[in-house]
Each structure stands twice: as C-alpha cells, then as structure tokens.
Amino acid sequence: MAKRKAVSIKDVARESNASLTTVSLVLNNRDGRISRATRERVLSAVERLGYRPSRLAQSLQSQRSGFLGILVPQLRHAFADIYFGELISAIQETAAENDYKIILDVANPRYLERNHHLELFRRHYIDGLLCLGVTNNDTYLDDFSDDHPVIVVNNRVAGIDLDFVQCDYAEAGRIAATHLCELGHKKIGYIHGATEVQTTADLRDGFEDVLNRLKLSLPTSRTEDGLYTEEGGAAAAIALLTRDPGITAIFSGNDKMAIGAISGLKQIGKRVPDDVSVIGCDDIHHAEFCDPPLTTIHTPIFEVGARACKLLLDLISSKAESVRETQAVSLSVRKSTAAPRKGRNGATQ
Amino acid sequence: MAKRKAVSIKDVARESNASLTTVSLVLNNRDGRISRATRERVLSAVERLGYRPSRLAQSLQSQRSGFLGILVPQLRHAFADIYFGELISAIQETAAENDYKIILDVANPRYLERNHHLELFRRHYIDGLLCLGVTNNDTYLDDFSDDHPVIVVNNRVAGIDLDFVQCDYAEAGRIAATHLCELGHKKIGYIHGATEVQTTADLRDGFEDVLNRLKLSLPTSRTEDGLYTEEGGAAAAIALLTRDPGITAIFSGNDKMAIGAISGLKQIGKRVPDDVSVIGCDDIHHAEFCDPPLTTIHTPIFEVGARACKLLLDLISSKAESVRETQAVSLSVRKSTAAPRKGRNGATQ
DNA sequence: CTGAAAGCGCTAACAC
DNA sequence: GTGTTAGCGCTTTCAG
What's the pTM value of the predicted model, to 2 decimals? Predict the structure, then answer.
C-alpha cells in the first residue's frame, strides 16, 4: 500500500516550465491563446507524470459535485430487488454517459431523523436527487420543497409538489381488467401492494374502473394485501380462494406477488391457468421463466429510469423548469391466463 | 428552483461575532479551549442559519473523499441482479454505518479503455474500491497493483495479488456432490457458469474431487455452460438430458441456472425431483419459491459483502495490511433433490 | 501568448 | 480563549 504522493497541477507546471494558469488552460481546452509549443510541453509533462486533476478541487471551485444521488427506501436488502435494480441500472448508465457519477443512499428512519437527506444537498454531496420507491407517507420529501433538483422516479406523492416520471399505472389496471374480462372471467380477485403508494392507487382505480363499467364489482372480500413480496402474494392468493372459491382469476399489483400467488395456488391444489388465471404487473425478467410463464403488464421501467435521470440533468443545467411525464404500458400475454373452465362455479356471478 | 445561496462558515463567523477558526473548532468538537458562551453563540448561529460544512471543502483539506467505489462488470442491467444487489446492499449498509458513502461504477469496455477505473483514485473520487463479479480475464485489476486499497469481493483473480473476501466454493462443490451421491445418484450432470471466474473453477474442483473419490466421473458429455443465466440453465439442462437420458441429477453453478434448468426439464417432460434432481448454489431469496423449492448450497453473500467493506475501511485507515478471507458455506435441503427412482437406467452406471 | 493573484470553503499551525 | 494566516488543488479574472 505504498501510496505514492499524488501529483498536482503544480508539479506539471514545474515539470513543463509553465505557470499553473497555462497548464489549466491547456487541460481545459481553453487554449486558443496558448502556443503550440507550450501546449505540447504541458501535455507531455502531464503524460509523463500521469497527472489527472483532482475532482475535489475542481468541484470546490465550480460548486458542482458531479454526483447524482439515488435514494431508496429501507427494505430487506434494498438493492437485491429487481425493480430497484433495473431503475438503478438505467440511471447509472444515463448518468455515466453524461459524466456524472451515482451515489447510493438508503432512507432508513435514523437517516431521515438526522436529516441526512437534506445534508445531501446542504453539504454539497450531490447536484440532484432521484427518489425511488416513494410512498405517500414519505413526508420528508416535503423538505426538498422547490429549491433542489429532485425527481420522484416511477411514482408521485399525493400532496407534495415534486417532479416525477412514471408509468401509466391507471392504464395498466385497465388493460389487466380488460384482458381478464375478455377471457370471460367474472369473479376476479385483486392482490395489491402497499396502499400508501400512489401508483398502487392508480392501478386499482384503472382496474376497478373497467370492472365497474362492465357491471362487475371488486368487493373487499376479493381484495388482499400481498405486501409486494412473494410470500405475501402466496398468502394473499390462498386467503382469496379460501374465502371465495368461485374466484377464477387474480390480478396482482406486481410480478413478485403474482409469482408468489401462483406458488400459493399450487399449494392448495389449484392449477394455473386451468383453475385460476393470474396476471401480474411489471414484466420483470423472471416473468418469462416461471411455471407457467406469467402474463403481465409490461411497464417500461428501464426507460423510466433513464428518462428520469436525463430530465434531472436538464433540471440541474436549467434546461428544464419542471418535469411531469407518464410513459405508456402494454399487455404481455404468456401462459398464466386463460378462459375460465365452463360449467364451473366461477362462470356464474 | 430558487436555490438560495449556500451558507458558509464565514456567514456563521459573522453572525456569531467569532472567527472562522473558532467556528471550525466548535463544530469539530476541538473546543476544549473555547468558552462556554462563545460556543453557545456559534452553535445558535449555526442553527439559525442552517449551516452545514461543505464536504467538498473538507475533503479537499483532509485529502479523503469519504467515498467507497463499487465496480461491477457490464451485464444486462448490471444492478438488476439479485447476487450483485445483495452484495451492494451489504456494502452500502456497512459503509453508511461508518460514515462513508458509496459510488457506483460499471466497468464496460469504454470505461476501462479510458482508464476510468484508475481515475477513481487518481482524481480522488474514492478512498477505496470493491470489485464485484471479477473474472480471471479482468487484467485491468493489475493496474491497482498494491498502492490502492482494493478488495475483490467473493472472488479471487488468478495471478493477480489482490486482497479478497470470498465464500468457500470448493467446499460448496464438495457438499453438493456429497449430497447427490448420498441420495444414490450415479450419473450426475453439471451446469457451470463462466469458466473464467476463479470461484467457478473452485466449485468444479470440489465437486469433481468428491466424484472422483467415489469412482464416479464427470465426463465432458455431462458438462454444459449455462452462462449464469436462467435461459442458459434451461438450454443446458435440455442439452444434457438429450445427450445422456440416463442423467438423474444436475448440479448447477448458481441458483439462477438451476431455476432455468428446472424450467427446461419440465419443457422436455421431466419431473423434478422424480425424474431428475436439481441442486443449485447461492441460496438466493427466490430459491424458496420456485416449484419445487430449490435445494441449494447456502453461501453467506450478505456477510461477505459486509465483511469486505469493513476490511476495506480497515485497509484505508491502515488498521489492516492485507486481507484474505474465506467464509463457510452450508447445505440447504428443499424439494428439488431426491433419491433416483429404482430400476431406471439412471441407477446403473 | 503567459503569469500573478484571488478565491472556492474549510482546517490547523501558530501567534497573541 | 480567540484570531491570523497559510494552504488543500484548482479555475479564472486581469495585467502585462
């Protein structure tokens, strides 16, 4: 670990018999006025010394850190989640293309209590922030008022005026309902995720909207919380069919719960889709590989992440003033949905 | 976006009628010599102004960035991977506990070509680096020679002398082989991941070791590359059983491929574990929820990540000189392995 | 065409 | 007890 002392711009200046200014000018291509000879001399010294300007000093000077923050909620191993992972990948990629780097923070209670989310800006850690997995309970978001570049990714927060980029979850709900209804299902169950998430509300609204229009209802007895997890989805599906064995289809608020639901249904001897159809939402990579492959609503998560990052950069460079975008979703039909079997109790409302 | 101007230590000094030094002293608790009254005055000014020291300036001064880097290889959406996600979660958590923040970088070809991995240190972005998903082809790691705090996480690199923390994959291979042999399997297939990964070699060595000792062999005809993906695992399993229908068990180098293998086996009409047993390696969260629940080798990934981060911090603060650790693994029996059915061709070598 | 000097916000010797 | 000053490494006026 024999850390050789870092070489600074001073060393380059000395080595090339030029002044600090000249070196800086050359390195920043502000060298319209620098003679070719001097330029060469400086560049060769830079090369020889392996000099690279300190980003710390540059940032102090420019008052821009060159970092973007990603704030995720505290979950079981926050980053071991495909949904967040996909968003983070998209954000990282977009940031890197624009010479920004990404900082990762987890908003646990202690973190928020100590106002670490505010320190992110106050202490000049970052130039902009992307908030993932936000819920309507996250009142701390209010602290970002309107004087910091912050974008809520794939969500909105009711009552807080923040920029966002999201998928059209109301439409996702409508598509799911339409698909199941067109197959002929009448008694449809619904497994939702955290109700304090705004897009969860959107999804349900869209879903119920179609059901209502077709004179089918969504009684609370056909509704269960799946906690956005596989375990939760399994438990919810079992609860649903235990309470109302006539249910022939289930719409799950995300794919994880849908996969759990399929597993739960199997446990109680129900076949998918023969006895019960299951449709998810998200279209995670794994959806294609479950048994049966999951019919789901494709949400362009990666694109949303990339777009959110791009727009945040625009916000930072004042190329944009305000950002509110909603991206289209689509149906991805696989094998977990089918028409209900005739003559079964499920076919009669 | 009416960004009110940032308040600096100068403002606090003015507001509290004290000097910069005094303010700094108070804030850093080096205030043994400061009078109680002054102290109060400073603190109240800090409070009133909402002052927080700039990390940029502090870092420039202290020559420590307070950041740790995580370098991951370029994969399809690098962070949408449970394995990396788990490591990153562990690292982030440990870093946060020690007042460090995490920077995320993806080592794509362009990145490496431009020596961005070296800039990480040269330009003072980070104080230490954790490399994930490393292979023996990653010669750029050599650039970190021995003058930077770098730890390879859950791997080693053949021929490059770098610190590492890893699971005992040789033992994992031995445990898997022993489990299958004890169940009575004779013809065992093996699906491996990228062979340029050192731990893959370890795993195979351990696996073959046991097989050889029991006078069972692992001919290349019973070996397939599963590319560390589900799709690859499915294809590999199908290839394996097509070539040698006598195979009654498969060991997969990771859970993802094992899950793919199960899906592939189903496609060709094989039941798991009735016709073919499948054992994975990793024990990812999802392993419990596939159908059938996956028997696998539990590797303490989270612990490895946390430990690697802790040791990196020790390296940085010179509390440690060199780091080489190997963590124990264990068998997690679920439902995807069973004794081979009697009288089947698989039972005779 | 080039360089001296100020300043970004902070810490720490060193006075007083 | 408290303040002055230099300096961390860089960019950028402003002179020359």
Answer: 0.91
Query: Is there a contact between B103 and A102 if contact means CB atoms under 8 Å apart?
Result: yes
What does the alpha-carbon distance between residue B290 and residue A21 come to, in Å, rounded to a whole number? 64
In this complex, the residue of A79, A119, A124 whose CB is nearest that of residue B89 is: A79
pLDDT score recorded for residue A348: 37
Chain B residue numbers with beta carbons less than 8 Å from the beta carbon of A78 are 89, 92
Q: Please list the rounded mean pLDDT of every run of 10 residues in chain B (349 residues).
A: 72 90 87 82 92 95 96 85 91 97 96 94 96 93 86 92 96 98 97 92 96 94 94 97 97 96 95 97 89 96 97 93 94 97 51
With beta carbons less than 8 A apart as the criterion, state whether A320 and A314 touch: yes
Q: Which tops the pLDDT comparison, A349 or A39?
A: A39
Quote the minimal CA–CA distance from B46 to chain A in Å.
13
- Cα of A316 to nearest chain B Cα, Å: 9
Q: Which CATH class is domain A67-167+302-328?
A: alpha beta
The total number of residues written for chain B in this structure = 349
| pLDDT given at position B278 | 98
Q: Considering only CA atoms, which of B175, B173, B179, B228 is closest in space to residue B201?
A: B173
Q: Which CATH number fits domain B9-53: 3.60.110.10, 1.20.58.340, 1.10.260.40, 2.60.120.260?
A: 1.10.260.40
Q: In Å, what is the separation between the CA of A100 and the C1' of D14?
A: 32
User: Which residues 57 to 86 of A reach strand C, CB within 7 A?
Assistant: 57, 60-61, 63
The reply to whether residue A123 touches residue B53, judged by beta carbons under 8 angstroms, is yes
Contacts of B271 in chain A (CB under 8 A): none
- Domain residue extents for chain B: 9-53, 67-167+302-328, 169-294
Return the pLDDT at A328.
98
Strand D closer than 7 A to residue B10 Cβ: no
Let me know: does A12 contact B156? Beta carbons within 8 Å. no
- What sign has the CA pseudo-torsion A286, A288, A289, A292? positive
Q: Half-sphere exposure (CA, 13 Å, Cβ side) for B329?
A: 26
Please check the confidence at residue A31 and state whether its pLDDT lies above 80: no
Please tell me the distance in Å from B121's CA to the nearest CA on chain A: 9
> Is residue B99 within 8 Å of residue A105, measured between CB atoms?
no
**What CATH number labels B169-294?**
3.40.50.2300
3-state secondary structure of A278: strand
Q: pLDDT tens-digit profile of B283-314?
A: 998 898 888 999 999 999 999 999 999 999 99
B59 touches strand C (CB under 7 A): no
Predicted confidence (pLDDT) per residue in B88-105, tens digit: 999 999 999 999 999 999
Residue A348 has, within 13 A of its CA and on its CB side, a CA count of 3
